[in-house]
Amino acid sequence: MKIIFTLLILFFNLILSQGQEIKKISTGGYHYQLGDDFLNISDLDRVLESNEEAHRLLYDARQYRGISQILGFTGGALIGYQLGNLIAGKDFDNVQGFLGAGLIAIAIPINIRQTRKIETAVDIYNSGLNPSSEPSAQLSFISTGTSIGLSLRF
Questions:
Q1: Residue 107 domain flag
Q2: C-alpha to C-alpha distance for 8 and 5, rounded to whole angstroms
Q3: Residue 118: which of 44, 20, 33 has the closest Cα?
Q4: Measured between alpha carbons, how far is residue 7 from residues 16, 18, 53 in Å?
């Protein structure tokens, strides 16, 4: 029984250890992992080149990322400048403050769209991985007239 249990654990470890999926780890930012390596957007671009559809989605997402960063930075700068003036005792310019808030409000949905496109690209890449990378092991239950057992074929 111990041998069968050990073989079952070994079999499941073989299956689970062979995948090279890109995993998303989100702890306050965008972190993608391939095996033990963490990928930034440029590394992710190189990995996704092999899948045309995923690479196109990542390219689109990078365009959204640039627009979102420019709008968010500009909006934050306008709001920050007005808050600095307010702290210094100067009057708050409503036009610049609300313009900054509006730019940030536009940047947020663009950033969400960019994140979704990257996640979709990673999902497409992961779904298109070769199933041949998984081991071709087959576990069978065998019974004869006098005994029963498990057969593991590679």
A1: yes
A2: 5
A3: 44
A4: 14, 17, 40
* Cβ-proximal residues to 106 (8 Å cutoff; 6+ apart), any chain: 71, 75
Number of domains making up the chain: 1
What burial class does residue 147 get, using C-beta atoms within 10 Å of its C-beta: 0-12 exposed, 13-18 middle, 19+ buried? exposed
Residue with token string 């079999």: 11
**Containing structural domain, residue 97:** 44-153
- Report yes or no on 39 lying in a domain: no
Q: Which amino acid is at 7?
A: L
pLDDT in tens, the chain (154 residues): 778 877 777 666 655 554 555 555 444 456 677 777 778 888 888 888 888 898 899 999 989 888 999 999 999 999 999 999 999 988 888 899 899 999 999 999 999 999 889 889 888 888 877 655 555 667 777 777 777 776 766 5
